[in-house]
Design a protein that fits this description.
317 residues; alpha/beta; Arc Repressor Mutant, subunit A; D-Maltodextrin-Binding Protein, domain 2; 3 domains; five-stranded mixed beta sheet; three-stranded antiparallel beta sheet; 12 strands
């Protein structure tokens, strides 16, 4: 009978893939780099296939490694669910979570799915509103935790993800060179709207707001229909969109930061559990737009953009 796969080795394998290197994976799983390398050699011996191949200074998955990754994630998820099902000290209660519409569309499905499986006795109450409104709800004690656009001038939050803010247009419709630039943006208090208008004003480019909505679905529809140009974070890019750069006459924009606001007094165990899930999910998110159906400049822009880990401080803009 074949020996079963080792859970610890699979966890390390996933950590290497998600973090991008053996060194960072060692930090995540609290092992030395040599121990991580030894685990991978034993895992390769167990499956009888090479899982990684040298790629410059780093390593990338082989086709067999990519095949194993899917099974590894399923095995670990099922293992965690089984442990949680027999945990007499499992978490219970209600968490009231706030998130903007665009973050809910991109991030929340995985966050909710993972948390519900590992903590099935916790009820999640989700509110979708702009960051400004969520901050007000937090101040009134109506929410326990909120995922917001980080803006230290207006509200305090712990940064958990940083990504580029992009000018986007339809890849299937010609870009009009005539002024003013037609914009589809959020409400007046939307930080991205303010950044976009200020950037165009700074270079003396005339613009006109044609569509206003706090719904990312409405804004994306206007862009994909070729009716307007907008600004979106990297992870919100969709097939059929094209990133506009300085070469197209659009000024560079500062990156967008996603932060977490927490209400004091919430069960520390509950707060730590949901925060860990949110951080892990955001850290593992890959750009929605990076696939074979997109413009090559999107891939280049995303690939070359420097990543920031939670807790690192960006320069002032």
């Amino acid at each position: 009978m074949s020996a079963p796969l080792d859970i610890d080795q699979l966890q390390t394998f996933i950590a290497i893939v998600d973090s991008g290197s053996f060194t960072r994976a060692a930090e995540r799983v609290f092992k030395t780099q040599s121990a991580v390398s030894m685990q991978m050699r034993r895992l390769e011996e167990r499956v009888g296939k090479q899982l990684f191949i040298k790629d410059g200074r780093g390593n990338r998955l082989t086709a067999e490694g990519d095949k194993l990754l899917n099974y590894a994630r399923r095995i670990i998820r099922l293992n965690n669910e089984a442990i949680a099902a027999f945990d007499d000290n499992r978490l219970e209660g209600t968490l009231r979570i706030g998130t903007p519409d665009d973050y809910a569309d991109r991030y929340m499905p995985e966050i909710i799915g993972r948390f519900a499986k590992t903590h099935p006795s916790v009820e999640l109450y989700i509110v979708c509103e702009p960051s400004v409104d969520l901050a007000e709800r937090m101040s009134r004690g109506e929410l326990d935790i909120a995922l917001v656009t980080h803006n230290p001038r207006e509200r305090m939050s712990d940064v958990v993800r940083t990504e580029p803010l992009c000018w986007v247009a339809s890849a299937n419709h010609p870009i009009r060179d005539d002024a003013p630039v037609p914009l589809a943006v959020g409400r007046r208090d939307c930080q991205w709207r303010q950044l976009a208008c200020s950037a165009l004003d700074a270079v003396g480019r005339e613009h006109q707001i044609l569509f206003t909505s706090w719904s990312c679905t409405v804004v994306a529809a206007a862009v994909l229909a070729g009716m307007a140009i907008s600004v979106m974070p990297e992870s919100a890019l969709r097939t059929g969109m094209k990133v506009l750069t300085q070469a197209d006459g659009f000024p560079a924009l500062p990156p967008v930061q996603i932060g977490i606001m927490k209400r004091p007094g919430v069960s520390l165990s509950l707060m730590n559990a949901i925060t860990a899930h949110i951080t892990a999910c955001l850290d593992n998110i890959t750009p929605a737009a990076v696939d074979d159906g997109l413009e090559s400049d999107v891939k280049t822009y995303v690939r070359n953009y420097p990543r920031q880990r939670a807790g690192q401080v960006l320069p002032s803009w």
